[in-house]
Write a structure and sequence with these properties.
This protein has one domain (2-222): TIM Barrel (Alpha-Beta Barrel). 30% of the residues lie in helices and 18% in strands. The protein is of the alpha/beta class. The radius of gyration is 16 Å and the shape is globular. Helix 1 (14-25) crosses helix 8 (208-219). Strand 4, helix 4 (100-112) and strand 5 form a beta-alpha-beta unit.
């Protein structure tokens, strides 16, 4: 299975999201069985997006999760609460600046509730401790992360070389995807990297037409 994940971060209000889903619904022919498309809205919008996406093949992820099981943890959202809506949960994203111990506890909380953790990392040195079966791993390429909608340009060969080095640190059956200025311009080249299983898309996923173009370009290789 290949994966394309839209991390919407703290963007779009409910009206924007409703328009996004409506716009994408008209374009969802781009989604093929070989590629799982995952949306990661803010916590507050997860139930609504869950309902709006019921007639599509889209899956949902949270952008974070608490490592606490339940109880007096004001402002936190637990895996046991998310599992009714989300098949996945992003954890360890670089913007959250969490230590590895916290990420591991969140990973374990997800796995206990049957949620697939999408584990982000910048430095692959800690992968041995982060690894567990039934997880998706996202290399956040710190040298290639877009800022304020401005994309960096990085050689695909350079990305491919580092992906190969990361692969040596993971079991051959692991799922590894790439996050770093993914957009409609570079997705074709990224899809050619054999050792990648997908991409994490940030800013470029905020427009449904652009996101559909990314899915179409990526999926061509796997039809």
């Amino acid at each position: 299975m290949k994966y394309i994940i839209a991390n919407w971060k703290m963007n779009m209000n409910f009206e924007d999201l409703t328009k996004w889903v409506a716009g994408f619904s008209e374009l969802q022919a781009c989604v093929t069985p070989a590629v799982e498309v995952i949306l990661a809205p803010s916590f507050v919008h997860i139930p609504a997006i869950f309902e709006l996406s019921q007639k599509t093949s889209l899956k949902l992820s949270s952008q974070d999760v608490s490592f606490e099981e339940k109880g007096a943890h004001t402002g936190e959202t637990g895996a046991f609460q998310l599992k009714a809506f989300c098949k996945y949960a992003i954890i360890g994203h670089s913007e959250r600046k969490e230590d590895q111990k916290t990420v591991i506890k969140k990973r374990n909380a997800c796995l206990k509730e049957g949620i697939t953790p999408i584990i982000c990392f910048v430095n692959p040195r800690g992968l041995k401790d982060l690894y567990s079966e039934n997880c998706i791993f996202v290399w956040e390429d710190s040298k290639n992360i877009s800022k304020n909608g401005v994309y960096n340009v990085k050689s695909t060969l350079e990305i491919e070389k580092t992906v190969g080095e990361i692969r040596k640190k993971l079991p051959s059956t692991s799922t590894l995807i790439y996050g770093g200025s993914v957009n409609e311009t570079n997705i074709g080249e990224l899809s050619k990297i054999e050792k990648l299983d997908g991409v994490l898309v940030g800013n470029a996923s905020l427009d449904p037409k652009t996101f559909a173009d990314i899915i179409s370009a990526y999926s061509k290789k796997f039809e």
